[in-house]
């Protein structure tokens, strides 16, 4: 922690800021690529102002740093060269007006109120304002496991899990109506979720490719360790003359699926127990 650049910047801030010890390596991992760059960095949750100065020290003077808070007291940091917006991050209208005034952003860090409503609405409203190769990062996501931040079934991390499903629905053989193309990838750390934006990559059509190399007709061994399935396949081979009877192919498919699912369930249930 003490060797990280973000921690050093944190200590140099003249105003109070409170961070968990595990956060600084995450900051360095996510944000070091932006140091010294002319980027727009938005931090939601200003509080005592200390983190604004931390980010200025960490990113450099080229960065445009914008703070968002509900407390009008935060406007005093405008005299220090920061842009400050006062509003409720759970208010879609506020975010629409914010986007109209700010334009595009490279990084948005949500360190605001941490309620599920605030985190989810902020994400939904701001993903479209992030430049390609930028990110939206939500901090303190451990509140999804705590009381006092909203209805657990609609927690932020439950929302993230659904978002991961939507990203994977982009695969070529799936129903595209359930897919989401706004985010290229989602990265998680303890107490952090980062949404990475790369629109060309996330909108690319998923198609199977072939490099045209020589093929030795190698046999697939995917189920070679499933003894029940191997016995069934051996029996099917002996009864191959029945394959033209109505319903035989369907029955064979159902039986194969049964033996695959049974083995998977028996071996993996230990990893899904609470």
Task: Record the SSE blueprint.
Elements: H1 5-12, H2 23-31, E1 40-44, H3 50-59, E2 64-69, E3 83-86, H4 92-102, E4 105-110, H5 116-126, E5 130-139, H6 156-168, E6 185-189, E7 192-196, H7 199-202, H8 227-238, H9 248-268
Approximate helicity band: 25-40%
What structural class results from the helix and strand content? alpha/beta
Using the CA coordinates, give the radius of gyration: 25 Å
Report the total helices: 9
**Shape, principal axes of CA atoms:** elongated
Please summarize the sheet with the most strands.
7 strands, mixed
Question: Could you list the spans in which at least 5 consecutive residues all have pLDDT below 50?
Answer: none
| SSE run | HHEHEEHEHEHEEHHH
Q: Alpha-carbon distance between the termini?
A: 31 Å
State mean pLDDT (0 to 100 scale).
Answer: 92
Strand order of the largest sheet: 3-2-1-4-5-7-6
Strand residue percentage: 5-15%
Number of strands: 7
Can you put this structure into words, describing what you see?
With 274 residues, this protein is an alpha/beta fold. It has nine helices and seven strands. Helix 1 (5-12) packs across helix 3, helix 4 runs parallel beside helix 5 (116-126) and helix 8 (227-238) packs antiparallel against helix 9 (248-268). It starts with a helix and ends in a 6-residue tail after the last helix.
Give keywords:
9 helices, alpha/beta, 7-stranded mixed β-sheet, 274 residues
Q: What's a concise summary of this model?
A:
The chain is of the alpha/beta class. The chain has helices at residues 5-12, 23-31, 50-59, 92-102, 116-126, 156-168, 199-202, 227-238, 248-268; strands spanning 40-44, 64-69, 83-86, 105-110, 130-139, 185-189, 192-196.
């Amino acid at each position: 922690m003490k060797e990280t650049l973000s921690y050093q910047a944190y200590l140099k801030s003249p105003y109070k800021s409170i961070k968990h010890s595990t956060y600084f390596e995450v900051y360095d991992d996510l944000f070091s690529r932006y140091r010294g760059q002319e980027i727009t960095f938005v931090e939601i949750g200003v509080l005592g102002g200390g983190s604004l100065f931390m980010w200025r020290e960490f990113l450099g003077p080229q960065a445009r740093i914008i703070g968002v808070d509900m407390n009008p007291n935060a406007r005093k940091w405008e005299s220090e060269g920061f842009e400050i917006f006062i509003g409720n991050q759970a208010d879609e209208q506020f975010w629409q007006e914010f986007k109209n005034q700010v334009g595009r952003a490279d990084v948005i860090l949500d360190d605001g109120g941490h309620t599920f409503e605030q985190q989810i609405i902020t994400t939904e409203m701001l993903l479209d304002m992030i430049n390609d190769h930028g990110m939206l990062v939500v901090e303190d996501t451990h509140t999804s496991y705590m009381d006092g931040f909203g209805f657990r079934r609609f927690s932020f991390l439950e929302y993230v899990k659904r978002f991961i499903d939507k990203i994977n629905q982009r695969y070529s053989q799936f129903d595209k109506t359930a897919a989401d193309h706004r985010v290229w990838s989602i990265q998680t750390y303890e107490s952090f979720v980062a949404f990475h934006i790369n629109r060309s990559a996330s909108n690319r059509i998923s198609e199977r490719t072939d490099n045209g190399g020589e093929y030795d007709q190698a046999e697939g061994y995917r189920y070679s360790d499933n003894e029940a399935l191997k016995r069934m396949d051996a029996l099917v081979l002996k009864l191959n003359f029945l394959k033209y009877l109505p319903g035989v192919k369907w029955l064979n498919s159902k039986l194969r699926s049964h033996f695959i699912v049974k083995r998977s369930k028996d071996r993996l249930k230990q990893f899904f127990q609470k």
